Amino acid sequence: MSMAYLAQGAEHQQLEWLDHSVMRVLLDGAATEGQLTMLRTSLPEGAASPVHLHSNEDEMFVLLSGSGIFWFGDERWELGEGGVVYLPRNVPHAYRFTSAVDLLTICTPSGSEGFFRKAGHDLSTPKPEGWAITPATLGEAAAAHGVTIVGPPRPA
């Protein structure tokens, strides 16, 4: 049975993510009966993901503000405010932002939130001393959630 889900902005889980960015989990599998995940992330200029692929989800980005470079396979694309990216599963991809950005991410079906939650830090809890997102913590979270890290972040 389908059900509606409503949440105020203050109710969204917030995670510290790559390069000290803040990711808000707007919708997850529990809220959408496994249909999709929606995230909104504020990232600083220079923030970059390693080259990776998702084996279980398709991923879409909407650049609400700012600019960045996206790679899919060997293709390189520059994107500005309002730009949209669709990445089918099993396609290696990465990003690097050339300004501070406000990024909306949608993944179908849901499940990718597990990766972000495992690698990130829930800001509603005290941060463990020395906590950081490292290649090792990303790799561990990736292996547990159908993500394969293919290489390091790409230079601009």
Describe this protein with a few key phrases:
globular; single chain; 3 helices; 7-stranded antiparallel beta sheet; mainly beta; 156 residues; 12 strands; Jelly Rolls
Q: Can you tell me about this structure?
A:
This protein is mostly beta strands and 156 residues long. The chain has one domain: Jelly Rolls (Sandwich). It contains three helices and twelve strands; from the N terminus they run ββαββββββββαβαβ. Helix 2 packs antiparallel against helix 3. The mean pLDDT is 95.
> What gross morphology would you assign?
globular
Q: Please write the string of helix (H) and strand (E) elements.
A: EEHEEEEEEEEHEHE
CATH superfamily: Jelly Rolls
Question: What structural category arises from helix and sheet content?
Answer: mainly beta
Q: Point out poorly predicted stretches.
A: none
Q: How many separate helices?
A: 3
Helix content: 10-25%
Compute the average pLDDT.
95
Oligomer: single chain
Supply the CATH class: Mainly Beta
Rounded radius of gyration (Å): 15 Å
Known CATH architecture: Sandwich
Strand count: 12
